Amino acid sequence: MLVYPSGVDVSSSALRFLSAKLRQRRRELGTRWRRLSAGRQALLTLAHLRNGHPYAQLAAGFDIGTTTAYRYITEAVEVLAALAPTLAEAVRTASSRAFVLLDGTLLPIDRMAADRPYYSGKHKKHGMNAQVIADPFGRLLWASPALPGAVHDIRAAREHGIVDALTNAGIRCWADKGYRGAGGTVRIPFWGRWETLAAGQKAVNRSHAKIRALVEQAVATLKSWRLLRKLRCSTTRITELVQAVLTLHLTSSE
Q1: How many whole angstroms from its chain centre is CA 237?
Q2: pLDDT per residue as tens digits for the range 219-240
Q3: Predicted structure pTM score
């Protein structure tokens, strides 16, 4: 396999943060020696998450075995995922905002047609449903654990307790029609065919769409980590990957 120098468009603060956490973990485990330093292990993990390169390619670039690359990345992802904010913590952060934006996104996976629980009829592809909460400027605040793609947004929001959490905290939330019936403080557009809506309802829907559109920036932020654009791992690991990316983003944006 040929090896060439490459770059990773991730802030140095994210590298320093992850390196420090990995050094702390090694001290706790009493690790004496490893093939890669904590800094190189952090760089390996960032390259995997940001660029989506497979383990074999990364292993060649870092001059380690494929199994070692997998173990190092898995360990780092676990460390990051454990630091991700909970929904309760995200709601406390959101309480200082005027309102929040809620939307669901599909994280594509490599599954066959037989895997119906993961098939999203809306997107016409297999994937995992992740709920995203953003502030009024479209900045990512929280991402939920991943559920099979066949799960609709309103059901996912209820299963994660998002609607109840926002309502109990008195936080207004703007969402699309996929959250019809959510109730509480969740606001969705007027339901119905465009030609049957009154002029006032159309004006409200246009205003609602302009506000809610900013949540797409948060979704784009999540998927700027290219690994999440096409996941080829076990579906049981996807939640940890999403939480790891969330931790890195929040750390870099502080």
Answers
A1: 13
A2: 999 999 999 998 988 889 999 9
A3: 0.91
